[in-house]
Amino acid sequence: MTKRPSPDILVIGGGVIGLRLALEVKRRAPGSRVTLIEKERRCGLHASGRNSGVLHAGFYYAADSFKARFSREGNARLTDYCAERGLRIKRCGKLVVASDASQLGTLEELLRRAERNGVELQKITASEASEIEPKVKTHERALYSPSTSVIDPAEVMSAFAGEAEAAGVDIRTGTAYLGRRNGSLLTGDGPIAAGYVVNAAGLYADRIARDFGFAEHHTILPFKGLYLESRPGSYALNTNIYPLPNLGTPFLGVHLTVTVDGRVTIGPTAVPALWREQYRLFDNFKIREFLQIFGLESRMFLGDRASFRSVALREIPKYYKPRMVRQAAALAHGVRATDFKTWAPAGIRAQLVDLRDYRLENDFRLEGDERSLHVLNAVSPAFTCALPFAEFVADEIERLTR
Question: Domains (ranges, CATH) in the chain?
Fold first, then answer.
C-alpha cells in the first residue's frame, strides 16, 4: 500500500461544519493538502443529516452572539446555494404564535431582536396569520418570518461533500479518530501526522479537545430530538408553525415543520440521552459514556442546575406520541394522532455544558492555538450558519498560525 503524504490540515468530523471548513481552507490555499476523516461510512450521518431542514432567519438570538452574526447571511447564502444547484427548497416562511396574553411580551422581545439583527420579522394579527395558514391558532397576534425556508439536509450534505472532493479535499470515510501519541493522530486508517488539526467532531468534540489540552471545564451533554411524521397526503400546511420559545433555554419547543416533499413533522423533543449516540434503545451503548453522562445528569437533575430537572420532566413524557400530538394541536387546527403515527429518525443535539456552573452554552464556542482548533459547540442553527461560520473559523486558524 502506498503511504499517503501527511496533510497540512486535518479536519476531524464530516458534518456540515467539517465539510465546509475543509473546503474553505482548501480554497484559500489550493496547493495545501487538506484531509477530512469521518468515522461513519459517509458524511452527515449524525446531526447534520438528521435535523429538521429549517433554514432559520436569525431573530431568536441575542445581537452580540455568533448565532445572530451568522444566521441572516447563512440563510441567504444557503437559500441561493440550493436554488443555483437545483436542490430542493421550500420557501414557506414561519409563523410564531402566542398561546395566551402572557406570551405577548416574548413576542415583542423577538421583534426587538429581529430589528437589532437586521432580520425581517412581521408582527401580524390573528386574522392575518389565518390568511397565511388557515389552520393556525394564535392569541391576538403572531410573528411571520418570510425568509425562513426548508431544505433536504441529506441532499445538501451530499452536494457539500461532492464540492469538497472536486476541490481536492481528501475525504476518508470509515476512519475514526482514536487518540493522540507523539504528535501524531491515531486513526482507524493508521497514524496521521498533520500540520494543523481542526476538531469538528460534534458529539465527541470535547473528548478530542481534551487530548490537545482544551475543553478543560466543558463536556458534551446529549439531547435526543424526536419527530413524528405525517402520513403522505394526510395533513398539509402552507408554512412552519412554532410556539413562542422560552428564551432562557436553547430549545425552541415542539413545532410543526413543513418538509420539501410536502409532509409535516411534529417535534422535536429535547429528551436527555443516556449516552452520546443513543438513537434507539441500546444503539451504540458504551458503559463508560453511560456512567459519565448519567452521573452528570443526576447531579443536574437533583440540583435542578440549568433548569435540567424541569427540562427532563417536561421532555421525557414526549416519548408518548399522543402527548406530542396534543402539543402540536395547540398550534394548529386539525392535528390528529391518526395522521402522525411514525417516528422519523432521531437526532442527537451535542449540547456543551460549562461544568463550573452547569450552564448550557447557548452560543457557538471555539478554543484553539497554533497547533489545533476545536469547534466545541455548534448546535442549531449551525446548519443555517455553515457557510459564513466556516469562513470565520478559517479566519481564526489564519490568526492563530501567523
Answer: 1-53+152-217+361-402 (3.50.50.60)
Element (H, E) at 97: strand 94-97
Tally of CB atoms within 10 A around 373: 27
What letter represents residue 139's amino acid?
H
Of 149, 145, 146, 54, the residue nearest 96 (C-alpha) = 145
Contact present, 319 and 273 (Cβ < 8 Å): no
Tell me the residue length of the chain.
402
pLDDT tens for the chain, residues 1 to 402: 456 788 999 999 999 999 999 999 999 999 999 999 999 999 999 999 999 999 999 999 999 999 999 999 999 999 999 999 999 999 999 999 999 999 999 999 999 999 999 999 999 999 999 999 999 999 999 999 999 999 999 999 999 999 999 999 999 999 999 999 988 999 999 999 999 999 999 999 999 999 999 999 999 999 999 999 999 999 999 999 999 998 888 899 999 999 999 999 999 999 999 999 999 989 899 999 999 999 999 999 999 999 999 999 999 999 999 999 999 999 999 999 999 999 999 999 999 999 999 999 999 999 999 999 999 999 999 999 999 999 999 999 999 999
d(CA 94, CA 124): 12
Q: How far is CA 30 from the centre of its chain?
A: 29
Please, which residues have CB within 8 angstroms of residue 309's CB and are 6 or more apart in sequence?
A: 300, 301, 302
Q: What region, left, alpha or beta, does residue 87 occupy, with left being phi > 0 and alpha being psi -120 to 50 degrees?
A: beta
Q: Please give the grid coordinates belonging to residue 139.
A: 392569541
DSSP 162-186: HHHHHHT-EEEET--EEEEETTEEE
Query: What global pTM score does this model have?
Result: 0.96
Pick the closest to residue 297 from 353, 365, 254, 350 (CA basis): 353
